[in-house]
Amino acid sequence: MRVLHAAAEVFPLVKTGGLADVVAALPLALAEQGADIRLLLPGLPAVMDGVQGAKTVIDIGSCFGAMRVRLLLARMPRTKLPVYVVDAPYLYRREGSPYQTVAGQEWGDNLQRFALLGWVAAHLAAGDADPRWLPDVVHAHDWHAAMACAYMAEHAASPAATVFTVHNLAFQGLFPMHDWALLGMGSHLMSPAGLEFHGQLSFMKAGLKFADRITTVSPTYAREIATTEFGCGLDGVIRDRGAAVSGVINGIDTEIWNPASDSAIANRFDAERLAGKAECRRALQTELGLVREDSALLLTVISRLTAQKGLDLLLAALPDLVTQGVQFAVQGTGEPALEAAFRMAQQAHPGKVHMHLGYDEARAHRLVAGADVIAVPSRFEPCGLTQMYGLRYGTLPVVRRTGGLADTVADGSTGFLFDEATPAALRRAVERALLARRDPAAWTALQRRAMAQELSWKEPAQQYLRLYAEARGATGPA
Ligand code: ADP
User: Fold this and answer.
1) Which pTM value belongs to this model?
2) 54, 243, 344, 465: which could form a disulfide with 72 (CB 3.0–4.6 Å)?
3) How far apart are the CA of 405 and the centre of ligand 1, in A?
4) What is the mean pLDDT of the chain?
């Protein structure tokens, strides 16, 4: 089976969140199961610089306001998977994130930038961009690639099926309706039954309306987004798709996140040799200037600092927890108010709270390896990856019972869950962890169960392959 994965980011070239990890690891896991996989990415500077052996497949000429657009075929640096790159210097070669300027403003031409990505995916599916490789399935990730589903449905020149994965429904790709003409899309779709969303134009709807199958990154989040509480105004559209919507839990890259071979950490360890983890813990306390107390519960957070992640709850519970013997090691970037609040917490509790403002992969490994617990108190969480890194390193997750957190952590067995999004509920869950750690044998048993959990991409990849077969069935004879 030939599958084209279209996405805006991929680890290690471009990453703003968990999406990049999925787009790196899932295609590889599918290829290991025998599928013929290619990626499609926008030619952002880090992609142009990072891919290997790029060759021009076709000169597309001018489109979406860009004068010179080419489709390249190259290989990913580590995995060597084939990757198509849309080289459109005018639209993509600029500093900043894939979605925003360095100053944090959405790019004014995101409509053109991401419509182009979907449009090229549709041409690959139709066979006129690269006749040597026709996908059976186009798998589009998030609103950035969602227009592939609409272009393919609209132009129907391709027998390929479409699968659309929602990694986070809160980011929707909304644009002014008056830019409709830029899309090259029939006006009959300018309505709520098409791409209109409350007077705006929604790329997310292109995926939700037109994909043959829709997935989200956990079964619980798949149920949640069909409700008004989590549906971001699209729950009705999602409910209408009925059984076409399902959840497949993300895996993690168990080679990169492996305490037995991780070169970024002070000491390697596994479930049978947890002494190495104690070394990592001591090394981390020293590195961060935290008091070297064995009785303290060392809690880490590695996260975007946004309202979604519930870190205001953690800040509210922090002073009380510090007096009870909890140490905090936080790493993240995001909303200035949260950054400032964590900085102030560090000043108020020297030796007990450490805040690192920044993005640092190697450091994230040291935090996960050295901490006792990892907190993810999210208000909503489509899947969440850091709690899974925690499980793999015997760093027990303290998480809110929502989305993928509810699907990956078992309360009292591999971690600690809480329900209400309140500081008190979070505090009680951390207190349960504090208490549990006073019994070393019981704590070790929890760690071993957590570390034994299957977290690789093998099973999720098999589920996606079944889904691809179903989606192809839905589009008629393959
Ligand atoms: P989201 O995609 O909502 O940001 P996830 O938990 O799905 O949340 O994925 C976040 C990914 O980004 C994880 O791989 C996590 O380790 C990483 N990450 C987030 N913030 C940082 C940071 N400051 N330093 C290093 N890695 C980070």
Assistant:
1) 0.94
2) 54
3) 14
4) 96
